[in-house]
Amino acid sequence: xxxxxxxxxxxxxxAGSLVITGKKQTYACPGVGTYQYTSAFLGSRDASTxxxxxxxxxxxxxxxxxHGQGLWPAFWLRHYAKSSAAEVDILEEFHNQSPGKVxxxxxxxxxxxxxxxKKTVPIETAVQGTGGWHTYxxxxxxxxxxxxxxxxxxxxxxSFNYTNTNASSWVNGYENNGWD
Length: 180
Known about the structure:
The chain is mainly beta. It contains one helix and 13 strands.
């Protein structure tokens, strides 16, 4: 029940930074309906174009997240087959229900269970409308036969890690497709 239509008009590069802006405006979202708010959702590739994206690696973003009711800033890795295959939520701040705290979550296919690992950590004292700059990352690496290790890092400090020892059904067949 999201209240916004995601549009490329709300994403821009300014002074070397990617800026995603949420706006209160009436907008006809093609094929969906009319919304009173707009925002942006950025994918790293066109799903119709077959390309190689690595399954393992370090994914990192430096961002400033404003505090305010109704926001849901996030940095996700979604499998090319969408979140039903796998999703790594490097950071989410749920509608600022817990201002100053971010949550990292691992979602896997139904055969492995969902939300297999989740942790919320404080990053700063919340001040309405502002937020500090922080660096959010996940390191994904093989951890033995059929296992994958996920290490979540905030500002260079490990916030938590999880090793999925039964990841073979998630890993097999996806090596050359990777993340969106």
